[in-house]
Each structure stands twice: as structure tokens, then as C-alpha cells.
Amino acid sequence: xKKLILKHACRLAAVAGALVLAGxxxxxxxxxxxxxxxxxxxxxxxxxxxxxxVTHRNPNTQQLQGIDIDLSAELARDLKVRVQYVDSSxxxxxxxxxxxxxxxxxxxxxxxxxxxxxxxxxxPYLQSDIYAVTTRSSRAVRQWAxxxxxxxxxxxxxxTFMEPVMKASLKQAQxxxxxxxxxxxxxxxxxxxxxxxxDYPYSRRLLDNxxxxxxxxxxxxxxxxxxxxxxxxxxxxWLAQVDDFVARIKRDGRLKGAAGRHGLLPIVVKx
Length: 271
Prior knowledge:
Blueprint: H1 4-23, H2 32-40, E1 42-47, E2 50-51, E3 55-57, E4 64-65, H3 67-79, E5 82-87, H4 93-98, E6 104-110, H5 113-116, E7 120-121, E8 126-128, E9 131-135, E10 153-157, H6 162-169, E11 174-178, H7 184-189, E12 195-198, H8 200-209, E13 213-216, E14 225-231, H9 236-252, H10 254-261
């Protein structure tokens, strides 16, 4: 189970990309979305503006920053168009793409089985395991092995992929599902959970901004999830454009450079 999603997602993305490119030996041909992008002179990019290190809107300056802000600008440059950002979320992602609210989702979209059934993905460019965050002063959780012990309260954000994974994995600890307006970090600081689970980018937000936070990495791969760029189904030529872009930024160093600027080098997919 721990590596199944990664292998399955990578295999589907690779096969889809290969079929698209095989069908157009001279390069991707225009389709409805690609025609619209070229005609309008802009590419509409869905982002989640609260994703630290990925597509984050600074609350003080309102400026967008993150790896996918940098890389979406590179995509627009390669296509010789402007970039137009559209606020989205993991909840509205599928509807936003299918309703043409945006042309591509670029905010480290996890390649979950249910999303693979509804959207088309580029090859993965990032991948993240599940990480634990606790306090530096914690006595209950000091290492990964301490998490699943009797009496330990483990927080997970409602609706995230960590919820079903931890529900299936925990045998002795108690899982606490955190629902808005509560947040995992506030529950941890208040002592209502001993530790909470998150992905690597979100953990960086705490480590960069909270001096009380301590990151605990799994000792072996626990549940690695690949991240890719998502597009609306039925636009194989546009998918080929996006997938080619990911292949280029891996080759020419732009992915590595953007990841380095935003503290995400450890989770870059290097294939």
C-alpha cells in the first residue's frame, strides 16, 4: 500500500504521455484548450493560494510566491503567452478544470486514484511522504516510532489523504480529525493533539515560521504520493504540451532551481 499509489500514478502518467506523443510524432497539435490559450494570449493557471512553498499568497504583501508560481511563469514564457492566476483549492479543483475556469492546475496536485479517474496528469515532478510535526518540548513524541503508541493523540486535517492513511495505519494511538476553523498547529499548541501529520511543503511552512515546531521524518518510506500538473480530460494535445514542459524543466535545471529557491529540493522527482 505504501508505494502502490506512487507506482500506479507514475505508470498511468507515463503511459498517457507516451500515447499522446506517439500520436503526434511532430509534436503536440492544437486542440480546444491549446487553441484557446494561443488565441487569448494567456494561460489560466489554477492555484491554491494557501500552499506554502508552492503557490502561497503572502498575507502582508499579497504577492504570490512558491515553486509553481515560478514554474507557471516559465510555462507561459515557453508558450509565449501571459499567465493568469485563478484561485482554486483541492475541493474545487476538478470542477474548476472541467468548467474551463482554468486551463491547468499547477499547485503540486497529489495524484490520488480518485483524481486520476477524473483528470489527466503530467508526469510527476514532486513527490512527498507523510511527515509528523510535534513541539520541540514534546515528551510524548520524539521519534517516528513514538507516534503509534497508546495514549498518543494524532491530528490529521479533515479531507486530506492523510486521514484515510492514518486511520488504516494507527493500531494503538488515537486519531483526531481536525476540521475548520480549527487548525492542526493550533490544536498541537493547545495540547489537544500530541502530533499531527502533513506533507513536506506544509511542514516547511511551520519550520520556517514557528520556532516551537519539530519535524519528524519516517524512518522508511511510509506513504509516498506523487504530485503533477492536472488538466481537463479530452485534451490530449494540451496534456502533451504540459507534459513536455515538465520533461524540459527536469532536463534544463529549471525545476531544480525553483525547488532550491523554495526549500523543496528533497522532494523533486529526478527521473
